[in-house]
TrEMBL record, chain B:
The lineage of its organism: Bacteria, Pseudomonadati, Pseudomonadota, Alphaproteobacteria, Hyphomicrobiales. Pfam families: TctA. It comes from Bosea caraganae. This is Tripartite tricarboxylate transporter permease. The chain crosses the membrane at residues 20-39, 45-71, 108-131, 137-158, 165-183, 203-222, 321-342, 354-380, 386-404, 469-486. Residues 20-438 form the DUF112 domain. Keywords: Membrane, Transmembrane, Transmembrane helix.
Amino acid sequence: MLWKSVGLTLAVVTSVLTGSAYAQGTDYPTQNVRIIVPFTPGGGTDLTARIVADALGKAWGQSVIVENRPGAASQIGIDYVAKAKPDGYTLLWSSADGISVLPAVKPKMPYKIPDSFEFVSTFSSFPLILGVYSKLPITNMKEFIDYAKANPGKMHYSSSGAGGGGHLQPAYMAKELGLDVKHVPYDSAAPATVAVAGGHAEFTDVAPSTVAPYIKDGTVRAIATSGRNRTILFPDVPTVSELGYPDLTEDFFYGMYAPAGTPADIVAKLRDGVQAVLKSPGMAERLRALGLEPLGLTGEEFKAFAVADLNRWTKIAKAIDFQLSGQ
Amino acid sequence: MDFLQSLLMGFHVAMTPENLMFCLIGATVGTAVGVLPGIGPVTTIAMLIPLTFHMPAIGSLIMLAGIYYGANHAGSTTAIMLNMPGEPSSVVVCLDGYPLAKKGRAGAALAMSAISSFVAGCVAFMIVAALSPQLSHIALAFGPTEYFATIVMALIMASILTDDSLVTTLGMCMIGLLIGAVGTDLTTGDERYAFGIPSLSDGVNFVAVAVGLYAFTEIIEYSGTTAIRQKMSFSFRGLIPSRDDLTRSWKPILRGTALGSAFGIFPGTGPMLSSFVGYSMEKRLAKDPSRFGKGAIEGVVGPEAAANAAAITHFIPMLTLGIPAGAAMAIMLGALQIQGIAPGPGVMTDHPALFWGLIASMWIGNLMLLVLNLPLIGLWVRLLGMPFHVLYPPIIAFSCIGVYSEQNSYFDILFAAGLGLLGILFRILGANPAPLILSVVLEPLLEQNFRRAMIIGNGDVSVFLKNPISLGILLFTAAVMIYFKVKRKSIIDDVVNLDDKAREPA
C-alpha cells in the first residue's frame, strides 16, 4: 500500500516536472479515444469521422471509437465535448453547422466559439449548389433572377431544416437580390433535393454529393456553386463570385476539435494524425468521390477561418432577421 | 427479356461464395439483433461501417441489407413469446401472437410468421426486380399533399385496429400525436414541449417508447404479481402449424404482401405502418372479427407479411431516390457513399451489378432466414419454460442498452421507464397502446407534410382536393370507411339475429 502511494506520488511529480514532454511521442494515447459525432450515423460528418477514426486507430494501435451523440442541430454532442475532460480522450468531429451557423442564430448557447475548443485540424469542405427544377425555363443565374422577379411569391425553396445553412444561404441570397421566395423546410438534404427533382419546390441549396445524381439524370439543373472555387464534380458550374456575388461565397467544413485546455502536445499529435490521414494515398480521390474537397487548415489558421465563418452567419442572421428560440 | 437478363446477372453476382458468405453473416447477425428487444439493426450497422471500408461495395451492402431485413424478420419472435416486440415494426404482432403463445401455440405462430415472412419476401423481391425503374417515378410524383393524404388514410385505417371502443382508440391516437409533437418545430426551429431537456429537442426516441410501453410494462406488471406466473404450456404438437392454420393464413399472407409492397415504395411509411394497416385490414375482412386479439393466426401472418414485404420494397426509395426510410437505411446509404456510389436515379444504370446483385441477394437471404429460423423455433419455445425471474433481468439489461445506444442518452432510459409506468396505467384502464405508438411515429410526417402543403398552397386547404392523387387517396379512404361501416352493421345484425333465433323455443 505504502509503496503503491509512493510510486503514485513519484509518477505525479515526474509528470508535473517533465510537463509536456511526458505526454509526447508514444505515450498518448494509452487508452481508447472517443470521437464524438454530434449527428446520427450515416451522414457526411459521421462518414468522414469514421474514415479518420479507422486510420488513426491503425496508426496508433489504439481503438479510436466514433460515438454518435445527436440532437438539437448538433448542439448536444458539441456541448458534451466542450464540457469533457481536456485529456485528449474525448474529441469532437463536427461540421460547420454547430460551430459557425447555430451560434449565429441561437441567442443562448451552452458553449462558446472559439473559447470552448482547441482547433485541431479541418479535414474537408464542400460548397452548396444552387439547383433548380429542370422543367423551369432557367439555365443560368440571370434567368433565375428574371424568373423569380416575374413570379413573386410563387417560387419555393426546399431546405434541409430551419436555421441551417441550407435555409439561411438562399434566404440571404433572396434578400440580396430582392427576390420574393418562400421557404419549405424538410428534415434533411436528400428529401429536400427530391422535392425539387419532383417539382414540388422550385429550387434548393444542397451539398454537391446530394444533388449530383439528379443533375446527372436531368431532373435538377445546377446554376451556381457557393464555393471559393468550382467543384470538381461540376466543373462547368460557375461560382457565385464569378457571377458577381462574392458575398454569397460559403464553404462548409468538417474538422476535429478538442476541449479547451487540452495539452498542446496532444493537440499536436492529433493534428499530425489528421493531416497524415488527409495526405494518405488515394484520400483526396476518396473525398472527391463524396463531393468533398480536402482542406487541411490547422491551429490558429483553422480558428480564424471558423470565427470568420461565424461572423458571416451572424451578419446574415441579422440581415434576414432570423433567430431560433429554445435552450 | 432485358429484365430477366439483369436478374440473372444479379444472381451471378449474389451467388459467388464470398457474397453468399456476406449474406449469411448479415442474416445471422440480423436474426440475433432482431430477437433482442431494444437492440436493433441501427446500432449494429453503425458499428459495422468501418469494417465495410475494407470490403467490396456489393459485399458490404449485401451484408448490411441482410442485417436490416433479418432483424425485421426476427423481431416478431419476442413479440409472440413474451409480448415484447424485438423491433418496433413487430408491435402489432403482439396483439395476436402473444395470446397464441399463451394458448400453447407459440411454435405454430412462430412457424407461420416465418413462412409468411418468406412468402412476402419472395413476392416483394419480384416486385422490386420487375418494377424498380417505374416505381421510383411514382415516389418522385409524391409531394407534400400526396403524402399528407396517404398518412391520413393510414391513420384512419389503422385506428380501427383494436377491440377497444372508438373513443379509447382515438384517445390513444391523440396522446400519441401529442407525444410525437414534442421536439423542434420544423418551420420555425422553435422547441415545443421539450422543457429544456436536450434529449427531447429532436423529439422522443421512438425505441424508448416501444420498449417502455411493452417490455418495461410487461416486466413491471409481472413483478407486481405475488403469485408465480403460470408456466406456459407447450407441446410438440403445438410447434407445427395445423392444416387449419394454413387455410386461414394463405389469403392474409398474400393481402399483407400486396399491401406492404405498396407502402414500402414511399419513403417514410414502411414496415411499421404496413404491419398496422395489414392488421386492421385482416380484422375488417375477417368473418368473425371477435377472434382478433385473442389469438387469431391471421392477425400474426397478415401484418408480418406486410412488414417484411415493405422492408424489401423500401430499398427502392433508398437506392433510386437516395432517401433513407429510417435510421438503419441512412447508415446503409452512408456505406454506399463511402464506396463512391452516389445513391439516386443513377444507381441502376451506373452500377447494375450492385443493384441487381443486392436484389438477388435479398431472395437468397430470405431463404437463409427461413432455414435459420424454423429449427430455432423449438429452442425459442423452450425458453418460455424458463422462470421469468431468470428471463427478465437480462431482458431489462438488453432493453436499456438498446434504448441508450440509439442516441447515447441516459435520459432515454428514464423516459422509457416512465412510459413503462404509463403502460401499467393503460393496462388498468384496458387501453391498447398500439395506436399510440403508430401515432407517435406518424405525427412528424403528418404535420410536416401538412405544413409544407400549406406553404406551397398559400394556406388554402383545398389543395388536398385539387390535387388528383391526394383527392383519389382521400376518396378511397372515405369509401373504405363507409364500406366497413356497412359491413360492421351487417355483422352486428347477424349476431342479433342469431340471438333471436337462439331465444326461440326449439
